[in-house]
Records
---
Amino acid sequence: MTALAQRSLSAPGLDVEKVRKDFPILGQEVRGKPLVYLDSAATSQKPRAVIDAVARYYLQDNANVHRGVHLLSERATKEYEGAREKVRRFINAARAEEIIFVRGTTEAINLVAQTYGRTRVRAGDEVLITEMEHHSDIVPWQLLCEEKGAVLRVAPIDDDGQLLVDELQRMLGPRTRLLALAHVSNTLGTINPARRIVEIAHRQGIPVLLDGAQAAPHFPIDVRALDCDFYAFSGHKLFGPTGIGVLYGRSELLEEMPPWQGGGDMISSVTFEKTTWNKLPHKFEAGTPDIAGAIGLGAAIDYVGALGFAAIAAHEHDLLTYATEAVREVPGLRLIGTAKEKASVLSFVLGDVHPHDVGTILDQEGIAIRTGHHCTQPLMRRLGVPATARASFAFYNLRSDVDALVAGLHKVQEIFR
Ligand code: PLP
């Protein structure tokens, strides 16, 4: 470990070596080398506290929620609804019924498109997104616009990967029914000025959905300060289980939106002639939910809360700065995404070497990165690259992980020289 790497262990407020002990998976060797996990933007690793919470639920409390009169069902319901309250506090929503448990960001956005979108968007109306969106914030709107004869418009970015907010503002108009954009870009790391953008859209009475998949793991989210109408994020990127995520919606909007999926739990009464809906949030949670997932997500929120976002952000900022400097030494490396405000994502291309080759060679060194289009094909086209290699950091990464990455990249260069 270099002296510089050593110093990072004492980044303010976070004892990273101690934190890493909470993540059993990080202690292993892969391909005969210590694992260097730099793919947290794809999915994060889970602390023991989350794994234990899920196991405890299945070992002690497993029962269906909201239905049983027996004790296990009572306990399961209490834990599930307790997790909802933890999410409410985590994003500072006004009410727990504004928190809808879904499978993840993708399902949250589809829910809004299929309920809010289908009732509000008509032929000739517009939905505005941006050039940096993940496919899950493109395709649901495309499906909706196709069905309704509406128009999907796309706000541009500059070559550094920053949103052109003035252009976006010009594209909002009387036909715009919704603005949907990433809070943080998964490919570029760009942090969009969400509060300012919401304000601009609201001046014209246009609601805003924020895709917070890459924001929630890195800094505190306050939906009331953001003043957004919808906010979506995934548990698995926030150190929680897969299969669980959150849609926050302003209660006035959720109240008037029709349900999406029909089934158990989302009804108030059913006859063959007519069904009436349950109250929020249950109207949007048809069928047995991912109870263990929600409980695991609650445990992840507790875990992150105990570390504190101030310490997390300081450490990740240190890692990003260190990594951005360090990779400059690698000949032929070009960073993709150089916005002023960035989360800890480092996308790059390495001369003519295909990113998949970069990823495969790094894998031989025990280093896990992501390569490809990162579910942002239109963004790749805009940037004129077919794919990138992407290293993404979480609070459990060390400067020595960056050093391993740089050493691996030099190896790639040697092989392709
Ligand atoms: N939005 C962004 C910005 C993402 O990075 C991702 C996942 O990579 C998603 C949406 C989709 O998240 P999920 O696959 O968890 O639904």
---
Amino acid sequence: MEKIKLHDKTFRLSIPYGEIESAIDAVARKINDAYRGVEGTKAILCVLNGAIMFTSELMKRLDFDTELITMKLSSYAGTASTGEVRETMTISGDVRGKHLLIVEDIIDSGRTIEVLYNMMKDAGAADIRICTMLLKPGCYVKEIPIDFVAKNIPDDFIVGFGLDYDELGRNYKDIYVLDA
Ligand code: IMP
Ligand code: MG
């Protein structure tokens, strides 16, 4: 499909599935190389819901034994006066002492990944590496190194392959960009 409509907006095809697949093949090879010889328990942390499709494709390509832990981050506005945003998390397993690979769908400003990284450090992970399917390098303003990036993209709003616009669009296997 060249164009899709979700809620009130139209999106046009941007990254076809074949291209996503090749990018995942390449990043999986880098991850396999990086973890070769690493002793101890490995765990993948899949950040729900967006990273679910990427995580499943990535895991099939990994050649080392790893646990799978899922977590969901929900942001909510705090006091109206400060406009503070806090995160609550629900995590399916224990990361303490494990070699943790955080798997994200997309990193934009880096605000989410920074919060996550610090939470996992506090939770006692032995070491933490980050893998994202997509990175918007023009938007990323944080210091935390992003160890593995399947694909860099421009600063546009996209949907598909797990990514949503107001909860729709996650099921498309191609990636679509907002049609201006
Ligand atoms: P950050 O905290 O600014 O890095 O944003 C990361 C989160 O914002 C991701 O986990 C997504 O949920 C969401 N996000 C950022 N860019 C997009 C996009 O282009 N499409 C859909 N969701 C996005
Ligand atoms: Mg997300």
